[in-house]
Amino acid sequence: MTTAPVAEAPAVPMTAKRRGAQLVMLAFAIVVVMGAYASVGLGIDGQIPSGTFTYGLGLAVLMFAAYGVLAKWAPWADPLLLPLVTLLNGIGLVFIYRIEQTGQAGASATNQLMWTALGVVMFSATLIVLKDHRTLQRLTYTMGALGLLLLVMPLLPIIGEDVNGASIWIKIGPLTYQPAEMAKMALVIFFAGYLVAKRDVLALAGRRLFFIDLPRVRDLGPVLITWGLSLGVLVLQKDLGSSLLVFGTFIAMLYIATQRTSWVLIGVLLFVGGAVLAGQLFGHVQDRFEVWLDPGNPEFYNRELGGSEQLMQGLFAMGSGGILGTGLGQGFPREIPLSFSDFIIAVVGEELGLTGLMALLMVYALIVERGLRTALAARDPFTKLLAGGLSFLLAWQVFIIVGGVTRLIPLTGLVTPFLSAGGSALLTNWILIALLVRMSDAARRPPPQAIQNEGLTQVFTR
Amino acid sequence: MSELALLLIRLAFLAVLWFFVIAAVGVIRTDLFGPRTAPSANPRKLPTKPAKNIPAKPKRGEPRQMVVTGGPLQGTIINLTEQPITIGRATDSTLVLSDDYASSRHAQLFPQDGQWIVEDLGSTNGTYLDRSKVTRPTPVPLGTPIRIGKTVIELRK
Predict the structure, then answer these.
(1) ipTM value of the model?
(2) Are residues B71 and B116 both part of a single domain?
(3) What are the boundaries of the region Disordered (chain B) (predicted)?
């Protein structure tokens, strides 16, 4: 038996920081985006657009700045989140540039790049200011109130504004903003804090009926309140997307917190019931259903507001794209109304085809996977719920909009995260990613080394 | 720009896009199977780093595999490399046990001067080499059972 010193024997293998992998992936993402940009130019007029390097360089500078902040303030963070988001944001920029080239009003790549810069600033600010995400737990009810306030803001008389029949905008001077975007995140933080406090009673009390555990009637309160809230959003603001998003996320978080299938069942029943009822009572919801079920009907196609032209053009575009797409810069995105915001997925489907669309959906799936993995690795229930909730929010949003554009579910006006033009959504999603990065940093940070030498006092540094 | 060139660009772009996705999955993969990427904290083996084409081929008489011979994971084989092997219930262990009698970081095996050494990492129920409790880093002979909770492992050629 040796008595060789083993004090410096290898420690328990830890999750590595993976800085190198992150840098390589980040550079790769930027190269892909620049390739896409050049390819758009080649497709349109056979030459590489002069702005390739300006835009590419702009994006690269922004993202490497974000990387610098991440490396300094969240060194253990997940190595993939930033590169994946960079790719999506960059591809979004390219497509908005491409649509701008067709002369569709409202599409502006320069604007989007500016919003991206602001998004990166918000990302950095969140990481620098928020040293410990658990501070948010103390703000549970503040966040709840803030979320509600933001949701009802567009209904207030002076600052609220109606655009295309939905009152989801506020206007302060020349600036317009969709507060619902920020409201979603505030509400997820509120749900996480609330469910951590109340999950025991929601998970345990109740009785068993047939094969399913039913909660007590009086514990239905939170579900009913959220349900009422989302129906209120649906009816008063005519915003089907946000309504579905908030309620679905709440149900998913309730399920994560309690592991009770009955909540999902109750939630689905409530929402379907509410939606059917709203469809009977309110014209604009009914329109959505009609258009969804029978978009080819000329009566719906030619309708002025809420008709099926957009949906049909999107379907035609994806159909003409086929498996491999028409190639960047060679489709007809101009035919689709609002192709740069709600229907950007249809343009991607046309120019990159099913193959490219699937690749982008995979990137979303990977982001969500990293988020859920953070939730798994997290050490306290609040982080678990918050990371799980935010990831689900992202996944659910992609599902609702892609499902709407491909006519799987009724179309709702939601933006595609990171791809669509739109500053409010871009800012919010960058903050969302910053929160995920902050949480993954906490979750992957190695725990203090276990004590090896008996008799030594261990000092915990936190 | 000819049709053919555009077609090639189109296919190349799609390929690059998918290559990005696959590279991302690759990063996740190496993340999941942590030990490959874990920094080796044992500086002594650095000077004798083997040449590239001879990946640390074990000499005759040195163990090459760690085999689980008892317990729920029976039949699991881990090939021995230069990396230390950690055993415990923690999910980042090399051999993850789901055993109430094992601690989360129970024990580790590491190579030193051509021998494999077992070290107990302060576990609750102890690590046994053959019949005796491991109280300090102990070399493991070939074929000697190491008992951790319900799990029995041994080194083989």
Answers:
(1) 0.83
(2) yes
(3) 38-68
Residues B27, B75 within the same domain: no
**Are residues B80 and B144 both part of a single domain?**
yes
In chain A, % of residues over pLDDT 70:
85
**End-to-end alpha carbon distance in chain A:** 38
Give the residue numbers spanning the domain of B3: 1-32
CB pairs under 8 A between A and B: 136
Residue closest to A329 by CA, chosen among A28, A31, A32, A47: A47
Strand pairing report for B65-70 and B151-156: antiparallel
How many CA atoms lie less than 13 Å away from A338 in the CB half-sphere?
A: 17
A121-164 pLDDT per residue, tens: 999 999 999 888 888 888 888 888 888 888 888 777 666 666 66
Task: Let me know if residue B37 belongs to a domain.
Answer: no
In a domain, B116, yes or no: yes
Q: Which chain B residues are Cβ-neighbours of A325 within 8 angstroms? A: 10, 14
- Nearby residues of B46 by Cβ (< 8 Å), 6 or more positions away: none
B27 closest CB neighbour out of A8, A80, A324: A80
Indicate yes or no: CB of A327 within 8 angstroms of CB of B6.
Answer: yes
Which range of A193-197, A399-403, B3-7 scores highest in mean pLDDT? It is: A399-403
Q: CA-CA-CA-CA torsion for A452, A453, A456, A461, nearest 10 degrees?
A: -20
Q: How many CA atoms lie within 13 A of B38 on its CB side?
A: 23
Is residue B51 situated within a structural domain? no
Polymer length in residues for chain B: 157
Weakly modelled stretches of chain B, pLDDT under 70:
1, 33-61
Neighboring chain B residues of A452 at a CB cutoff of 8 Å:
121-122
Q: B138-139 and B115-120 as β-strands: parallel, antiparallel, unpaired?
A: antiparallel
d(CA B120, CA B33): 22
Whether residues B22 and B80 fall in one domain: no
For chain B, the domain total comes to: 2
**B14 and B89: one domain?**
no
| A209-to-A49, A213, A216, A255 alpha-carbon distances in Å | 66, 6, 12, 18
Residue B94 domain-assigned (yes or no): yes
Same domain, B18 and B90: no
Phi and psi at residue B154, to the nearest 5°: -145, 160
CB contact under 8 A, B9 and A42: yes
On whether both B28 and B72 belong to a single domain, the answer is: no
Tell me the pTM.
0.75
B27 touches chain A (CB under 8 A): yes
